[in-house]
Amino acid sequence: MSNEQRSNEEQVKQVKTDVVLVGAGIMSATLGALLKQLEPEWSIDVYERLDAAAAESSDAWNNAGTGHSALCELNYTPQNKDGSVDIAKALNVNEQFQVSRQFWAHSVESGVLSDPKNFINPIPHVSFVHGESNAKYLRARYDALASNPLFEGMEYIDSPDEFTRRLPLMGTGRDFSDPIALNWSDAGTDVDFGALTRQLLNYISGSGGTVHFGSDVRNITKQSDGTWNLKIANLRTGAKKTVNAKFVFVGAGGGALHLLQKSGIKEIKGFGGFPVSGEWLRCTNPDLISQHSAKVYGKASVGAPPMSVPHLDTRVIGGKAGLLFGPYAGWSPKFLKQGKLTDLPSSVKPGNLMSMLGVGVTELGLVKYLVSELAQSEADRVETLREFAPNVIGKDWELVTAGQRVQVIRKKGRGGVLEFGTAVVNAADGTIAGLLGASPGASTAVPAMLDVLQRCFGDKYAGWQPKLEQMVPSLGRKLAEDRSLFREIFDWTSQRLQLEQTSRFAQPSGV
Protein backbone atom coordinates (compact mmCIF):
# COMPACT_ATOMS: atom_id res chain seq x y z
CA MET A 1 0.00 0.00 0.00
CA SER A 2 1.43 3.40 -0.96
CA ASN A 3 1.78 6.30 1.49
CA GLU A 4 -0.95 8.14 -0.42
CA GLN A 5 -3.33 5.17 -0.05
CA ARG A 6 -2.56 4.94 3.67
CA SER A 7 -3.23 8.66 4.05
CA ASN A 8 -6.59 8.40 2.24
CA GLU A 9 -7.60 5.39 4.35
CA GLU A 10 -6.68 7.22 7.54
CA GLN A 11 -8.82 10.19 6.47
CA VAL A 12 -11.76 7.86 5.94
CA LYS A 13 -11.27 6.24 9.32
CA GLN A 14 -11.22 9.49 11.29
CA VAL A 15 -14.15 11.85 10.91
CA LYS A 16 -15.12 15.01 12.79
CA THR A 17 -18.67 16.29 13.13
CA ASP A 18 -20.64 18.61 15.37
CA VAL A 19 -23.49 16.23 16.26
CA VAL A 20 -23.87 12.46 16.17
CA LEU A 21 -27.34 10.96 16.55
CA VAL A 22 -27.26 7.24 17.32
CA GLY A 23 -30.30 5.45 15.92
CA ALA A 24 -32.56 6.47 13.02
CA GLY A 25 -35.81 6.45 14.99
CA ILE A 26 -38.32 9.14 15.87
CA MET A 27 -36.27 10.61 18.74
CA SER A 28 -33.05 11.15 16.75
CA ALA A 29 -35.03 12.36 13.73
CA THR A 30 -36.90 14.91 15.84
CA LEU A 31 -33.77 16.21 17.56
CA GLY A 32 -31.91 16.40 14.26
CA ALA A 33 -34.75 18.35 12.61
CA LEU A 34 -34.83 20.80 15.54
CA LEU A 35 -31.06 21.35 15.49
CA LYS A 36 -30.93 21.78 11.71
CA GLN A 37 -33.36 24.69 12.00
CA LEU A 38 -31.69 26.20 15.04
CA GLU A 39 -28.09 25.80 13.82
CA PRO A 40 -28.15 25.27 10.03
CA GLU A 41 -24.35 25.31 9.80
CA TRP A 42 -23.80 22.46 12.25
CA SER A 43 -22.79 19.14 10.74
CA ILE A 44 -25.12 16.30 11.79
CA ASP A 45 -24.51 12.59 11.26
CA VAL A 46 -27.07 9.87 12.02
CA TYR A 47 -25.78 6.30 12.50
CA GLU A 48 -28.24 3.41 12.27
CA ARG A 49 -27.35 -0.26 12.75
CA LEU A 50 -30.14 -1.53 10.51
CA ASP A 51 -30.60 -0.96 6.78
CA ALA A 52 -33.71 1.18 7.11
CA ALA A 53 -35.01 4.10 9.13
CA ALA A 54 -37.47 3.58 12.00
CA ALA A 55 -37.24 -0.20 11.67
CA GLU A 56 -37.40 -0.87 15.41
CA SER A 57 -39.75 0.82 17.91
CA SER A 58 -40.83 3.63 15.55
CA ASP A 59 -42.07 1.26 12.85
CA ALA A 60 -45.82 1.48 12.25
CA TRP A 61 -46.45 -2.21 12.99
CA ASN A 62 -44.20 -2.17 16.05
CA ASN A 63 -46.26 0.35 18.02
CA ALA A 64 -49.92 1.26 18.41
CA GLY A 65 -49.54 4.67 16.76
CA THR A 66 -52.08 6.04 19.20
CA GLY A 67 -50.81 9.58 19.37
CA HIS A 68 -50.94 9.27 23.14
CA SER A 69 -52.91 12.24 24.42
CA ALA A 70 -54.66 10.59 27.39
CA LEU A 71 -58.03 10.91 25.67
CA CYS A 72 -58.64 7.18 26.03
CA GLU A 73 -55.82 5.58 28.04
CA LEU A 74 -57.31 4.73 31.43
CA ASN A 75 -53.93 4.11 33.09
CA TYR A 76 -53.40 7.89 33.00
CA THR A 77 -56.55 8.50 35.08
CA PRO A 78 -56.38 6.27 38.17
CA GLN A 79 -59.28 6.16 40.59
CA ASN A 80 -58.70 7.33 44.14
CA LYS A 81 -59.96 5.45 47.17
CA ASP A 82 -62.80 7.94 47.60
CA GLY A 83 -64.03 7.23 44.05
CA SER A 84 -62.70 10.45 42.52
CA VAL A 85 -60.36 10.33 39.53
CA ASP A 86 -56.82 11.73 39.45
CA ILE A 87 -56.33 13.53 36.11
CA ALA A 88 -52.88 15.07 36.73
CA LYS A 89 -51.00 12.61 34.51
CA ALA A 90 -53.64 12.82 31.79
CA LEU A 91 -53.25 16.61 31.66
CA ASN A 92 -49.47 16.30 31.45
CA VAL A 93 -49.53 13.70 28.68
CA ASN A 94 -52.07 15.68 26.66
CA GLU A 95 -50.02 18.88 27.03
CA GLN A 96 -46.98 17.03 25.72
CA PHE A 97 -48.84 15.74 22.68
CA GLN A 98 -50.10 19.23 21.88
CA VAL A 99 -46.44 20.32 21.75
CA SER A 100 -45.70 17.55 19.25
CA ARG A 101 -48.73 18.54 17.14
CA GLN A 102 -47.53 22.14 17.03
CA PHE A 103 -44.04 21.20 15.86
CA TRP A 104 -45.48 18.93 13.16
CA ALA A 105 -47.93 21.64 12.02
CA HIS A 106 -45.15 24.23 11.81
CA SER A 107 -42.99 21.70 9.97
CA VAL A 108 -45.71 21.28 7.35
CA GLU A 109 -46.00 25.06 7.00
CA SER A 110 -42.23 25.49 6.61
CA GLY A 111 -41.70 22.55 4.27
CA VAL A 112 -39.79 20.38 6.74
CA LEU A 113 -42.61 17.86 6.39
CA SER A 114 -44.66 17.27 3.27
CA ASP A 115 -47.98 15.38 3.13
CA PRO A 116 -49.38 15.12 6.69
CA LYS A 117 -51.83 12.40 5.59
CA ASN A 118 -48.75 10.25 5.13
CA PHE A 119 -48.20 10.13 8.89
CA ILE A 120 -51.21 11.44 10.83
CA ASN A 121 -54.97 10.89 10.46
CA PRO A 122 -58.03 11.68 12.61
CA ILE A 123 -59.40 8.69 14.50
CA PRO A 124 -61.78 8.80 17.51
CA HIS A 125 -60.16 7.85 20.83
CA VAL A 126 -62.50 5.84 23.02
CA SER A 127 -62.36 4.45 26.56
CA PHE A 128 -64.44 1.29 26.99
CA VAL A 129 -65.54 -0.52 30.15
CA HIS A 130 -68.25 -2.96 31.14
CA GLY A 131 -69.73 -3.76 34.52
CA GLU A 132 -71.59 -1.43 36.85
CA SER A 133 -68.63 -0.36 38.99
CA ASN A 134 -66.46 0.30 35.95
CA ALA A 135 -69.24 2.35 34.34
CA LYS A 136 -69.39 4.51 37.50
CA TYR A 137 -65.63 5.00 37.28
CA LEU A 138 -65.87 6.06 33.64
CA ARG A 139 -68.62 8.53 34.50
CA ALA A 140 -66.40 10.00 37.23
CA ARG A 141 -63.53 10.18 34.72
CA TYR A 142 -65.73 12.03 32.26
CA ASP A 143 -66.90 14.45 34.96
CA ALA A 144 -63.29 15.19 35.91
CA LEU A 145 -62.02 15.69 32.35
CA ALA A 146 -64.83 17.07 30.18
CA SER A 147 -64.70 20.63 31.52
CA ASN A 148 -60.95 20.94 30.90
CA PRO A 149 -59.98 22.70 27.65
CA LEU A 150 -57.74 19.80 26.60
CA PHE A 151 -60.65 17.36 26.77
CA GLU A 152 -63.43 19.60 25.53
CA GLY A 153 -65.92 17.74 23.36
CA MET A 154 -65.55 14.42 25.18
CA GLU A 155 -68.79 12.43 25.43
CA TYR A 156 -70.07 9.90 27.95
CA ILE A 157 -72.12 7.12 26.32
CA ASP A 158 -73.96 4.29 28.05
CA SER A 159 -76.73 3.60 25.56
CA PRO A 160 -76.50 0.15 23.92
CA ASP A 161 -78.05 1.50 20.71
CA GLU A 162 -75.57 4.35 20.45
CA PHE A 163 -72.72 2.00 21.37
CA THR A 164 -73.64 -0.32 18.49
CA ARG A 165 -74.18 2.53 16.07
CA ARG A 166 -70.71 3.92 16.66
CA LEU A 167 -68.88 0.64 17.19
CA PRO A 168 -70.75 -2.00 15.16
CA LEU A 169 -67.97 -4.58 15.38
CA MET A 170 -68.03 -4.33 19.17
CA GLY A 171 -71.80 -4.08 19.55
CA THR A 172 -72.87 -6.99 17.35
CA GLY A 173 -73.58 -10.06 19.47
CA ARG A 174 -72.97 -8.27 22.77
CA ASP A 175 -75.01 -9.09 25.87
CA PHE A 176 -76.01 -5.64 27.07
CA SER A 177 -77.38 -6.97 30.37
CA ASP A 178 -73.79 -6.32 31.42
CA PRO A 179 -73.68 -2.48 31.53
CA ILE A 180 -71.28 -0.75 29.14
CA ALA A 181 -69.87 2.77 29.04
CA LEU A 182 -67.69 4.83 26.73
CA ASN A 183 -65.74 8.06 26.94
CA TRP A 184 -65.65 9.20 23.31
CA SER A 185 -63.41 11.89 21.83
CA ASP A 186 -63.30 12.92 18.19
CA ALA A 187 -60.02 14.76 18.81
CA GLY A 188 -57.87 11.62 18.59
CA THR A 189 -55.33 10.71 15.94
CA ASP A 190 -53.53 7.73 14.48
CA VAL A 191 -49.83 8.38 13.86
CA ASP A 192 -47.50 6.39 11.64
CA PHE A 193 -44.27 7.23 13.43
CA GLY A 194 -42.26 5.28 10.88
CA ALA A 195 -43.47 7.49 8.03
CA LEU A 196 -42.98 10.62 10.16
CA THR A 197 -39.43 9.57 11.01
CA ARG A 198 -38.57 9.03 7.35
CA GLN A 199 -39.86 12.48 6.41
CA LEU A 200 -37.80 14.13 9.16
CA LEU A 201 -34.66 12.21 8.17
CA ASN A 202 -35.19 13.25 4.54
CA TYR A 203 -35.25 16.85 5.71
CA ILE A 204 -32.02 16.38 7.69
CA SER A 205 -30.19 14.77 4.77
CA GLY A 206 -31.60 17.36 2.35
CA SER A 207 -30.27 20.14 4.60
CA GLY A 208 -26.68 18.95 4.69
CA GLY A 209 -26.87 16.18 7.28
CA THR A 210 -25.90 12.57 6.56
CA VAL A 211 -27.72 9.36 7.49
CA HIS A 212 -25.52 6.25 7.61
CA PHE A 213 -27.30 2.89 7.52
CA GLY A 214 -25.72 -0.46 8.37
CA SER A 215 -23.44 1.35 10.84
CA ASP A 216 -23.07 -0.11 14.32
CA VAL A 217 -21.82 2.16 17.11
CA ARG A 218 -19.60 -0.14 19.18
CA ASN A 219 -18.17 2.25 21.77
CA ILE A 220 -18.30 5.84 22.98
CA THR A 221 -15.39 7.41 24.90
CA LYS A 222 -14.87 10.90 26.31
CA GLN A 223 -11.81 12.83 25.10
CA SER A 224 -9.69 15.28 27.08
CA ASP A 225 -11.10 18.22 25.12
CA GLY A 226 -14.66 17.29 26.08
CA THR A 227 -15.59 15.76 22.73
CA TRP A 228 -16.55 12.14 22.14
CA ASN A 229 -14.99 9.43 20.00
CA LEU A 230 -17.39 6.84 18.61
CA LYS A 231 -16.11 3.53 17.28
CA ILE A 232 -18.32 2.58 14.34
CA ALA A 233 -18.35 -0.57 12.23
CA ASN A 234 -19.84 -0.76 8.74
CA LEU A 235 -21.87 -3.95 8.86
CA ARG A 236 -21.88 -4.25 5.07
CA THR A 237 -18.15 -3.95 4.39
CA GLY A 238 -16.61 -4.66 7.79
CA ALA A 239 -14.73 -1.34 7.69
CA LYS A 240 -14.26 0.49 10.99
CA LYS A 241 -13.85 4.16 11.70
CA THR A 242 -13.69 6.65 14.55
CA VAL A 243 -16.03 9.62 14.56
CA ASN A 244 -15.27 12.57 16.80
CA ALA A 245 -18.33 14.60 17.85
CA LYS A 246 -18.92 17.64 20.01
CA PHE A 247 -22.37 16.37 21.02
CA VAL A 248 -23.86 12.86 21.03
CA PHE A 249 -27.49 11.84 21.40
CA VAL A 250 -28.25 8.18 21.95
CA GLY A 251 -31.72 7.58 20.55
CA ALA A 252 -31.22 3.88 20.04
CA GLY A 253 -34.37 2.61 21.75
CA GLY A 254 -33.57 -0.50 23.77
CA GLY A 255 -29.93 -0.16 22.73
CA ALA A 256 -29.52 3.19 24.49
CA LEU A 257 -28.78 1.73 27.94
CA HIS A 258 -25.74 -0.24 26.78
CA LEU A 259 -24.23 2.70 24.90
CA LEU A 260 -24.75 5.13 27.76
CA GLN A 261 -23.10 2.60 30.08
CA LYS A 262 -20.13 2.38 27.71
CA SER A 263 -19.82 6.16 27.74
CA GLY A 264 -18.97 5.99 31.45
CA ILE A 265 -21.06 9.00 32.46
CA LYS A 266 -21.89 8.87 36.15
CA GLU A 267 -25.52 9.84 35.51
CA ILE A 268 -26.32 6.41 34.04
CA LYS A 269 -25.29 4.58 37.21
CA GLY A 270 -28.25 2.99 38.94
CA PHE A 271 -30.30 2.76 35.75
CA GLY A 272 -31.30 -0.64 34.45
CA GLY A 273 -33.74 -2.01 31.95
CA PHE A 274 -36.41 -4.71 31.89
CA PRO A 275 -37.30 -5.95 28.39
CA VAL A 276 -40.87 -6.78 27.45
CA SER A 277 -41.93 -7.80 23.96
CA GLY A 278 -45.41 -7.50 22.57
CA GLU A 279 -47.65 -9.29 20.12
CA TRP A 280 -50.79 -8.22 18.26
CA LEU A 281 -53.67 -9.92 16.58
CA ARG A 282 -53.88 -8.26 13.16
CA CYS A 283 -57.17 -8.49 11.27
CA THR A 284 -57.01 -10.04 7.80
CA ASN A 285 -60.71 -9.63 6.95
CA PRO A 286 -61.45 -6.34 5.11
CA ASP A 287 -65.13 -6.55 6.03
CA LEU A 288 -64.33 -6.53 9.75
CA ILE A 289 -61.82 -3.69 9.29
CA SER A 290 -64.55 -1.60 7.64
CA GLN A 291 -66.84 -2.11 10.66
CA HIS A 292 -64.50 -0.38 13.12
CA SER A 293 -63.07 3.12 12.98
CA ALA A 294 -61.72 4.05 16.40
CA LYS A 295 -58.97 3.41 18.91
CA VAL A 296 -60.76 1.74 21.79
CA TYR A 297 -58.87 1.26 25.06
CA GLY A 298 -60.10 -0.91 27.92
CA LYS A 299 -58.90 -1.46 31.48
CA ALA A 300 -55.90 -3.58 32.35
CA SER A 301 -56.77 -6.71 34.29
CA VAL A 302 -56.11 -6.69 38.04
CA GLY A 303 -52.38 -7.04 38.72
CA ALA A 304 -51.36 -6.34 35.12
CA PRO A 305 -48.92 -3.50 34.36
CA PRO A 306 -50.07 -0.29 32.60
CA MET A 307 -48.39 -1.31 29.34
CA SER A 308 -50.81 -4.25 29.08
CA VAL A 309 -53.96 -2.15 28.60
CA PRO A 310 -55.98 -3.97 25.88
CA HIS A 311 -57.04 -1.96 22.86
CA LEU A 312 -58.78 -2.50 19.53
CA ASP A 313 -57.05 -0.10 17.18
CA THR A 314 -57.75 1.26 13.76
CA ARG A 315 -54.44 1.96 12.01
CA VAL A 316 -53.79 3.97 8.84
CA ILE A 317 -50.55 2.82 7.24
CA GLY A 318 -49.63 3.76 3.70
CA GLY A 319 -53.09 5.21 3.23
CA LYS A 320 -54.74 1.89 4.00
CA ALA A 321 -56.86 1.13 7.08
CA GLY A 322 -55.91 -1.79 9.30
CA LEU A 323 -57.06 -3.22 12.61
CA LEU A 324 -55.01 -4.47 15.56
CA PHE A 325 -55.88 -5.94 18.94
CA GLY A 326 -53.51 -6.36 21.84
CA PRO A 327 -51.00 -6.18 23.21
CA TYR A 328 -50.25 -9.70 24.35
CA ALA A 329 -47.07 -9.68 26.37
CA GLY A 330 -44.11 -11.80 25.46
CA TRP A 331 -40.67 -11.93 26.92
CA SER A 332 -37.15 -12.05 25.58
CA PRO A 333 -33.83 -10.97 27.08
CA LYS A 334 -33.22 -8.94 23.91
CA PHE A 335 -33.31 -5.16 24.25
CA LEU A 336 -34.15 -4.72 20.56
CA LYS A 337 -36.38 -6.72 18.26
CA GLN A 338 -33.23 -7.47 16.28
CA GLY A 339 -31.00 -7.55 19.35
CA LYS A 340 -28.99 -10.23 21.14
CA LEU A 341 -29.96 -12.81 23.76
CA THR A 342 -27.14 -11.42 25.91
CA ASP A 343 -28.63 -7.91 26.04
CA LEU A 344 -30.22 -8.24 29.48
CA PRO A 345 -27.38 -10.04 31.33
CA SER A 346 -24.73 -7.77 29.80
CA SER A 347 -26.63 -4.69 31.02
CA VAL A 348 -26.19 -5.70 34.67
CA LYS A 349 -23.31 -3.66 36.12
CA PRO A 350 -22.06 -2.99 39.65
CA GLY A 351 -23.74 0.42 39.49
CA ASN A 352 -27.24 -0.97 38.80
CA LEU A 353 -27.07 -4.43 40.40
CA MET A 354 -29.02 -3.41 43.50
CA SER A 355 -31.62 -1.59 41.38
CA MET A 356 -32.15 -4.71 39.28
CA LEU A 357 -32.34 -7.02 42.29
CA GLY A 358 -34.72 -4.68 44.07
CA VAL A 359 -37.14 -4.69 41.15
CA GLY A 360 -36.93 -8.47 41.02
CA VAL A 361 -38.38 -8.54 44.53
CA THR A 362 -40.99 -5.77 44.20
CA GLU A 363 -42.38 -6.65 40.77
CA LEU A 364 -43.50 -10.23 41.39
CA GLY A 365 -46.90 -9.26 40.00
CA LEU A 366 -45.31 -8.38 36.67
CA VAL A 367 -43.49 -11.72 36.60
CA LYS A 368 -46.75 -13.55 37.31
CA TYR A 369 -48.50 -11.59 34.56
CA LEU A 370 -45.78 -12.40 32.01
CA VAL A 371 -45.88 -16.10 32.88
CA SER A 372 -49.66 -16.18 32.41
CA GLU A 373 -49.40 -14.32 29.09
CA LEU A 374 -46.71 -16.66 27.77
CA ALA A 375 -48.90 -19.64 28.63
CA GLN A 376 -51.80 -18.39 26.49
CA SER A 377 -52.92 -20.45 23.52
CA GLU A 378 -54.30 -19.08 20.26
CA ALA A 379 -57.82 -19.80 21.55
CA ASP A 380 -57.05 -17.88 24.76
CA ARG A 381 -55.98 -14.84 22.76
CA VAL A 382 -59.12 -14.89 20.64
CA GLU A 383 -61.24 -15.22 23.78
CA THR A 384 -59.61 -12.06 25.16
CA LEU A 385 -60.43 -10.29 21.90
CA ARG A 386 -64.08 -11.34 22.24
CA GLU A 387 -64.42 -9.11 25.31
CA PHE A 388 -64.19 -6.29 22.77
CA ALA A 389 -65.74 -7.92 19.69
CA PRO A 390 -67.98 -10.83 20.76
CA ASN A 391 -68.52 -12.45 17.36
CA VAL A 392 -64.95 -12.61 16.04
CA ILE A 393 -63.39 -15.90 14.92
CA GLY A 394 -59.73 -16.80 14.97
CA LYS A 395 -59.29 -17.36 11.23
CA ASP A 396 -59.84 -13.63 10.58
CA TRP A 397 -56.79 -12.67 12.64
CA GLU A 398 -53.05 -13.35 12.50
CA LEU A 399 -50.50 -13.06 15.30
CA VAL A 400 -47.69 -10.56 14.66
CA THR A 401 -44.77 -9.55 16.84
CA ALA A 402 -44.60 -5.90 17.81
CA GLY A 403 -41.56 -3.94 18.91
CA GLN A 404 -39.38 -4.71 21.89
CA ARG A 405 -39.72 -2.32 24.83
CA VAL A 406 -37.23 -1.81 27.64
CA GLN A 407 -38.85 -0.39 30.76
CA VAL A 408 -36.72 1.92 32.90
CA ILE A 409 -35.39 0.65 36.21
CA ARG A 410 -34.30 3.56 38.37
CA LYS A 411 -32.41 3.45 41.65
CA LYS A 412 -34.56 4.11 44.71
CA GLY A 413 -33.11 3.83 48.20
CA ARG A 414 -31.12 0.61 48.41
CA GLY A 415 -33.09 -1.01 45.63
CA GLY A 416 -34.86 0.07 42.47
CA VAL A 417 -38.25 0.85 40.97
CA LEU A 418 -39.69 -0.07 37.59
CA GLU A 419 -41.04 2.92 35.66
CA PHE A 420 -43.46 2.76 32.73
CA GLY A 421 -42.46 6.00 31.06
CA THR A 422 -39.45 7.68 29.47
CA ALA A 423 -36.38 9.26 31.02
CA VAL A 424 -33.82 11.64 29.55
CA VAL A 425 -30.33 10.96 30.90
CA ASN A 426 -27.56 13.47 30.20
CA ALA A 427 -24.03 14.19 31.35
CA ALA A 428 -23.61 17.22 33.59
CA ASP A 429 -21.59 19.04 30.92
CA GLY A 430 -24.32 18.54 28.32
CA THR A 431 -22.09 16.85 25.74
CA ILE A 432 -24.04 13.58 25.66
CA ALA A 433 -27.63 12.55 26.33
CA GLY A 434 -29.90 9.62 25.71
CA LEU A 435 -33.48 8.53 26.09
CA LEU A 436 -34.55 5.44 28.03
CA GLY A 437 -37.97 3.85 28.38
CA ALA A 438 -41.13 3.33 26.35
CA SER A 439 -44.77 4.54 26.40
CA PRO A 440 -45.91 7.20 25.71
CA GLY A 441 -42.54 7.50 23.97
CA ALA A 442 -42.93 8.52 20.33
CA SER A 443 -45.97 10.71 21.00
CA THR A 444 -43.88 12.89 23.30
CA ALA A 445 -40.80 13.00 21.06
CA VAL A 446 -40.93 16.77 20.60
CA PRO A 447 -41.21 17.77 24.30
CA ALA A 448 -38.59 15.13 25.15
CA MET A 449 -36.15 16.57 22.63
CA LEU A 450 -36.90 20.13 23.75
CA ASP A 451 -35.92 18.88 27.20
CA VAL A 452 -32.64 17.60 25.74
CA LEU A 453 -31.97 20.99 24.15
CA GLN A 454 -32.58 22.83 27.41
CA ARG A 455 -30.47 20.42 29.46
CA CYS A 456 -27.55 20.13 27.06
CA PHE A 457 -27.38 23.55 25.38
CA GLY A 458 -28.18 25.84 28.29
CA ASP A 459 -25.82 28.53 26.96
CA LYS A 460 -27.67 28.64 23.63
CA TYR A 461 -31.25 27.88 24.65
CA ALA A 462 -32.25 31.47 25.45
CA GLY A 463 -31.03 32.57 22.03
CA TRP A 464 -32.94 29.74 20.39
CA GLN A 465 -36.18 30.48 22.20
CA PRO A 466 -37.70 32.94 19.65
CA LYS A 467 -37.21 30.35 16.89
CA LEU A 468 -38.55 27.57 19.12
CA GLU A 469 -41.64 29.65 19.87
CA GLN A 470 -42.31 29.84 16.13
CA MET A 471 -42.18 26.04 16.01
CA VAL A 472 -44.18 25.59 19.23
CA PRO A 473 -46.29 28.72 19.87
CA SER A 474 -47.43 27.57 23.32
CA LEU A 475 -43.87 26.93 24.53
CA GLY A 476 -43.66 27.55 28.27
CA ARG A 477 -47.42 27.93 28.70
CA LYS A 478 -50.08 25.48 29.89
CA LEU A 479 -52.90 25.07 27.39
CA ALA A 480 -55.04 23.44 30.07
CA GLU A 481 -55.12 26.82 31.82
CA ASP A 482 -55.95 28.94 28.76
CA ARG A 483 -59.05 27.81 26.88
CA SER A 484 -58.90 30.48 24.15
CA LEU A 485 -55.22 29.80 23.43
CA PHE A 486 -55.86 26.07 23.24
CA ARG A 487 -58.75 26.55 20.83
CA GLU A 488 -56.64 28.79 18.61
CA ILE A 489 -53.69 26.39 18.57
CA PHE A 490 -55.78 23.25 18.23
CA ASP A 491 -57.64 24.67 15.24
CA TRP A 492 -54.36 25.78 13.63
CA THR A 493 -52.70 22.39 14.07
CA SER A 494 -55.83 20.59 12.87
CA GLN A 495 -55.93 22.68 9.71
CA ARG A 496 -52.23 22.35 8.91
CA LEU A 497 -52.22 18.60 9.63
CA GLN A 498 -55.45 18.11 7.64
CA LEU A 499 -57.21 16.50 10.59
CA GLU A 500 -60.62 17.92 9.68
CA GLN A 501 -61.41 18.83 13.26
CA THR A 502 -61.51 22.60 12.94
CA SER A 503 -65.30 22.63 13.39
CA ARG A 504 -65.06 21.15 16.87
CA PHE A 505 -65.03 24.61 18.47
CA ALA A 506 -67.09 26.40 15.83
CA GLN A 507 -69.44 29.06 17.18
CA PRO A 508 -73.04 29.36 15.88
CA SER A 509 -73.51 32.14 13.33
CA GLY A 510 -74.21 35.50 14.89
CA VAL A 511 -72.38 34.75 18.14
Automatic annotation (TrEMBL):
Catalysed conversion reaction: (S)-malate + a quinone = a quinol + oxaloacetate
Enzyme class: oxidoreductase
GO molecular function, one term: L-malate dehydrogenase (quinone) activity
Keywords: FAD, Flavoprotein, Oxidoreductase, Tricarboxylic acid cycle
Stored Pfam families: Mqo (PF06039)
Keyword Metal-binding: no
Keyword Hydrolase: no
Cofactor(s) this protein requires: FAD
Gene that specifies this protein: mqo
Naturally occurring in which organism (per UniProt): Rhodococcus sovatensis
E.C. no: 1.1.5.4
HAMAP family cross-referenced by the UniProt entry: MQO
Protein name: Probable malate:quinone oxidoreductase
Family: Belongs to the MQO family.
Pathway(s) annotated for this protein in UniProt: Carbohydrate metabolism; tricarboxylic acid cycle; oxaloacetate from (S)-malate (quinone route): step 1/1
Lineage: superkingdom: Bacteria
Cross-referenced InterPro entries: FAD/NAD-bd_sf, MQO
